[in-house]
Amino acid sequence: MLEIATGHFRSQAIYVAAALGIADLLEDGPKNCGELSRAAGAHPEALYRLLRALVSIGVFERNKNGDFQLNPLASTLLRNSPNSVRNAALLAGARFHWDSWSHLSYSVLTGKCAFEHVHGAELFDYLRGNAAAAAVYEGWMTRASEMQVRAVVESYDYARFGTIVDVGGGHGALLAAILNSNPAVRGILFDLPEIIRDARIIADSGLDARCSGQAGDMFESVPRGGDLYILKTVIHDWSDGLAVRILGNCREAMTAGSRLLLIESVVPEGNGPHPSTFMDLNMLVLTHGGRERTIGEYRALFEAGGFELAQVIATRSPMSLLEGIPAG
């Protein structure tokens, strides 16, 4: 229990190591603490104490000379590693995120958003006005998507659709991967104007001829005439009422033969550990009504939005694919 209760010690230690770029400083080989402190701009003795603690839990190693070096776990803090989760560590320890979690009790006692209680603004409004925080947040959202893309692309038959509309598709990483794997499919990337302006992934992937970006507000409408509408980790940001509005707008834009595909982390039945349960607490802290949901809760949303839940497809990642068919 003591180890669990003091988990924030470990989280903050990893955050500081990630923020200082210690893993990158060790990428070319072991270094002593003096070398590391000079390169990182840190206090030598304090940095030593930080790294000693991290070594004790298996993050970094010390060789027989007493120098610090990477190990497989520490390598996940490298900026450019294919297994990097550095951006997750930076978000977890970022002041705007950390301060919100320190008020979890507020959310539990009131059912309200701790983030707005602390910062005086809803999360996405806050990020629009704070470029540094937005960069940290978007950095992990983009990296998380990159880590999940292969599992999502290989788990569903996208080739049977002529046009795919990615609603709230961000910078286009998922849609680009789908189009690259299915050369006969066309795409529409749909998101807010400021997101679409910065969505360079489609162009960088050479997909301009098969994919267009459209700006708009999914709470008002979405592009019409698509054969498949994808929403990846969109619905979990919103309350049931707002989620149903988004789904209803998708239903209105679709034909009878169109399909809906939600990509979300589904809360399993039973009491075993699963990433979705603590992510659900994260949604409680950060959002107004956002949550991770069970299959039964998603089925209810589908029905309220005008869909039947046709199938749920597990992937190799924590994400599941929930396919909807227009009802009626």
Short description:
With 328 residues, this protein is an alpha/beta fold. It has 17 helices and 9 strands. Helices cover 48% and strands 14% of the residues.
Helix/strand order: HHHHHEEHHHHHHEHEHHEEHEHHEE
First and last CA, distance: 52 Å
Q: If strands are numbered along the chain, what order do they take across the biggest sheet?
A: 5-4-3-6-7-9-8
Number of helices: 17
Number of domains as seen in the coordinates: 2
Biggest sheet record: 7 strands, mixed
* CATH topology term of the largest domain: Rossmann fold
Helix content bin:
40-55%
Report the strand count.
9
What spatial form do the alpha-carbon principal axes imply?
globular
Taking all Cα atoms into account, the compactness measure Rg is 22 Å
CATH superfamily of the largest domain: Vaccinia Virus protein VP39
Q: Indicate the CATH class of the largest domain.
A: Alpha Beta
Q: Please identify the structural class as seen in this structure.
A: alpha/beta
User: How does CATH name the architecture of the largest domain?
Assistant: 3-Layer(aba) Sandwich
